[in-house]
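ugh ok fine here u go
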Amino acid sequence: MPCMVVATPQQKASLRQLFMNRKQTLIRDHQSLRSASQALNEAILSGSKNLASQEAAVGKAQQQLLHDRDALATEFCGQLSQTQRGAESGHAGADNDEIEFRHVATSPWRSIEPASLMA
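structure:
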């Protein structure tokens, strides 16, 4: 998320709190996507000819995950001052407004942290 480059330490701490507040939603979104993908894979392996409902479920789960990630990024970047936004827009990666997430542990009950907080 390019706005992390210009965020103050207090704003970065705010991101951590925002993330912790939305963590369960993001975990649930990942689980829904995983379940929908698994159902589609099982339907394909079973030789099913009608995969429309499984494909639709995967698409819906992907869309919800992206929506929730974008909402988190929008809320955090919206906290920046006008001066910070101007500085952020000059950053080389400023056209990429997505947050990159990665799993910290294999357990779904462990943290999923924004990659930018872990770098």
